[in-house]
Amino acid sequence: YAGRLLTSQDFAGQLPQPDQHLFIGRFGGFEPYSDTGSPYGSASYRLRILLPEESAFYTLELPEIFSAYRLYLNGKEVAGMGDPDPAHYRPETGNRTVTVEAGGELDILFAVSDFSHLYSGMVYPPAFGTPEAVSSLLSARLIFRSLLCAAALLVGLLSVLIGLLSGQASRPLLFGLLCLTFVGYTCYPLTRTLFVGYGAQYLLENLCFCAMPPVVLLLTGRLC
Length: 224
What we know:
alpha+beta, 38% helix, elongated
């Protein structure tokens, strides 16, 4: 529902017609809905899931949703980050989960606004399933990213130490800097899980991404 911040009350009477049916990640923002191609604005996403009639607990993962949202499950507001109201807009992002007891049908409604980021709306698809399945998925991802960042940091530190001890610090220091920028760019699953915020995290990520190609070129020049 492009340009609309809907709540569960909006579906109590006559159902509003959606602008289109889409899969999450199809667009990087709201620009397909804008005549000017602007990624900024508001939208609502609604999904109805048919579940077994017997009531059970289910977990819904809430990945980064740019950049403020409210979540309604079966008519109740259960989670949110920042303030999606355009008059009081406040961006905030992070990775979270919500567990709900449901049976028969689950109505999921996200009301999202973005006026500050490169992306907007729901870019990453959320995971939904039993608490055990979702927890295993998220834990495996977190462990993998932690090991990846730890290995890159360790290799970078060893490279710097070798350069300092050998007296030829140019190449090892550049390689250590490359490892550091790599960690800064790839550690977002860790930072978004451990911390909730906005601004500094994305600035660090973008700086590290833009710094990697020049460091690679400098390092290649030293090697060749």
